[in-house]
């Protein structure tokens, strides 16, 4: 434990300039945790308890649907499911809580998966022609063996039940055999030219099917792509029979008796073959084909990609297949067809079918299969169909497979939140669940899982492109959806053709969620969308019907407007008539748009004006929309913060800042960024000539610096987040323009009274007011080049900007440098009880504002003193004149008290706003101003932590002295930074664009962890990465999956106990008694010895050049590497004890049986001895 002394710098050393507080740490104090103070007296002694031993990076679990699935397998005894993907990943699923992710190092696509049934192992075949054997008897599967084929491409694999020999078909038409135990290739090979007739002149094509006969294990059925089927006798090494069909084969399945098999073909037909008459099919059907007029042959249909033929003891067999629809129905969705007797049921799917499997009661292929469910793997979903009910309902999926139901656009993660929230959200959300599911239990129920030692509640919130919000219970490394909120319900539905007039600037998804702010204690929820709107929600258990209150804010800024106005036309406080034109909003003014109309003071979306029924849950309290200004659309919101204690929401964009009172429904402040500086603008922006092309400038100003890191992303960044990775090489010019502000004429740039309507920055509109205005109802403006901050990406700082941040700027700089500095976005906002001005003696409500140029401004909030006055008296909002500065765009703020404890922002205790039982008159707002320490114990100073995309600084307030500064990166930039709590101590967590995750102690900014975790390869990661308390973090690793990780050493050590077991000891079910006559006449009476036929002694060794054996890191060595530490050793010991206990139990049963037999034998022997005891030898 190390102690750090903070020394107070003399006020005279920092009083020379507003930025001198940070300047003191910008030079000599550039090292890690270097104290910037050089003189003073002992200020405070803070003990930091965190050390580097507390931190370690480790992936924990992956949630969601496997991205780009390719293969499917099921273990009918263990009842676990495996899904392979195009990226080389394998997801293994069991009962809820059993969800394992493993990855092939090569990243090659998974072609096929085969379980070693009830053996705790899995074989995967990948597109790089490699077979892998995975050990599933450990919580993190590892590869035991690999076999790389060098000269042939793998096309199909088959592993018979309770066999250790794997059949492998290749593209050349050959069939090889692999020993599963040693993963060595046998010398036994079935060559394609020996399998087909010698008279055949063409190659049969790749092997598309392999399976042994249910009747005789010594016979192998080989299907070739061109329509040839060979029934191969393994002992005699010859083809027993051959089948030819003039259509290509896609799949084959046996009847359980082994006398018939069914094939699916490329013309949409199914053929049933009998082994006794191979010359022609026993039956040919085209299930979805229309019969021709002559009645001879049905028309061709789409290929049937797979068919399964499953028999039942008490009913007709099931024939289940995918595809096969008629070509004349091109618009029909992908379907799964179930034929049961004469009934044909077509199940239409929302996505293309990748693979399906029929789940049967028995693992033995020679018994009645008794199918009970079908697992259907779609491109973007996993469904299970219940076959035991006539209407074939689907099972309710317990896995979070619908994260991507609409593309995820933003995420938020909350650990150790109030424990009652999960139950409350679930109770509301369960009322809106879909109905009609099967009443049977989920059939994939294998594995074992327990809660483990982690018990604190966790909630994940995801925002989506369709405007929906999903709340997830993420406790104990699981994920379950609690509640879904649709924000689009507050807006009117768009009519066809409304968006045509703005199609040149409109993209998809006008309701896409951009930013999320949630206060779990007060249950205040706030979102901002890409159409420049903010919605504030309050939580209620009661349903209400009410009108939605709407406000419109005019937030656009241009420097020329404050330089060139005429005195007679620029009153200091313009009235509302100057903000909203008296003419119809759709009428023409002075600028020609796409239809000769200038859009001005028009929001992008229409809020519903009629009363709206709001069900229990989150209900819209206020909708705030930015409006068009002089034909230019509003810029998207780049920062958002809400204070439930103050009743204020603040948001900013590239134009300026808006502060709204959501209790009184009024706009308190709306001004351009330059107005916030008042007379202390460090950048000294100067007027210049008018713009030549406003729209071009508005489209490109925010991409400054992003092209330096991602030059190919600056043209086609969209909010249709599925296409974020569509790249075009189009560097953005560095010309930057200034924006407009309707408040440029305000005195000192602040509004004195919201209730007097003197704030010209916005207009308070109730639902009745909205009906009086003819709003534009088209789709929202959305430029293809957005602000990077809109996607939670900090803009990288160019070399020129770094030089400019040295605070030695020349006042006679060139016009180009003035252009770059003129546009300044609001990138971070933070409400806190703090010292707004230097040398203040008491704390007061403040709003910290961070900008893209590294400037920090503190705005004072003067709130009414009593609850009664809060609902009637105005809130005073005034820039304090306090400025701090850092390198790069500001990302986050936080405050610590004098003892080093993290201060939480004040909040209002939640109360149901629609509870009719409570007396409204006696109700008072219950505020928690400081959750850790009472305000009187905060003392005469506090510490403020500010992190930008380049550096972090710790300031002492009110003296504004920079105590510590740490330059985090010089060559890259930080994407996400948060002050989090771990082990009851605060630390700063950062994720850098170069892939590094860094943890720094607070307040000394000592580096605790720096790991090169994940290079930024996708904008999706930057947009969704977020830290939270207790050492947790997450990001969207693919469009359909969330990856969770931990940076806590304690959780890494306990992770093995938290993960589920994939393999549990289960006795293999016994085979059914076939009966004497059936065993005598039903097939081969002798057992088939594969070892004798395929072993090295009889078959020899395969050529070494054909395949290469690669030992894997699995087994006990792989388990040691995967587990590690004492917990891993204990886990292995426990597994060994379980297995030993099971064996001892079996031995005890056998011993008891032997003892019973011995006692019976002893009794009979004693009776025999007594019987013949007195007899002579000659009497026998």
Automatic annotation (TrEMBL):
Q: Which GO terms describe its biological process?
A: exocytosis; Golgi to plasma membrane transport; protein transport
Membrane-topology annotation of the record: Peripheral membrane protein
Q: Where are the WD repeats?
A: 103-144, 242-283
Task: Output one GO MF annotation.
Answer: syntaxin binding
- CDD domains associated with the record: R-SNARE_STXBP5
Q: Name one GO cellular component term.
A: plasma membrane
Using the UniProt record, give the first listed, main subcellular location: membrane
Residues crossing the lipid bilayer are none
Q: Does the keyword Transcription regulation apply?
A: no
Provide the residue span(s) of the region labelled Disordered: 15-38, 567-594
| Its job | Plays a role in vesicle trafficking and exocytosis inhibition. In pancreatic beta-cells, inhibits insulin secretion probably by interacting with and regulating STX1A and STX4, key t-SNARE proteins involved in the fusion of insulin granules to the plasma membrane. Also plays a role in neurotransmitter release by inhibiting basal acetylcholine release from axon terminals and by preventing synaptic fatigue upon repetitive stimulation. Promotes as well axonal outgrowth.
Name the protein family: Belongs to the WD repeat L(2)GL family.
What is the protein name stated in its UniProt record?
Answer: Syntaxin-binding protein 5-like
Question: According to the entry, what is the taxonomic lineage of the organism?
Answer: Eukaryota, Metazoa, Chordata, Craniata, Vertebrata
Gene that this sequence comes from: STXBP5L
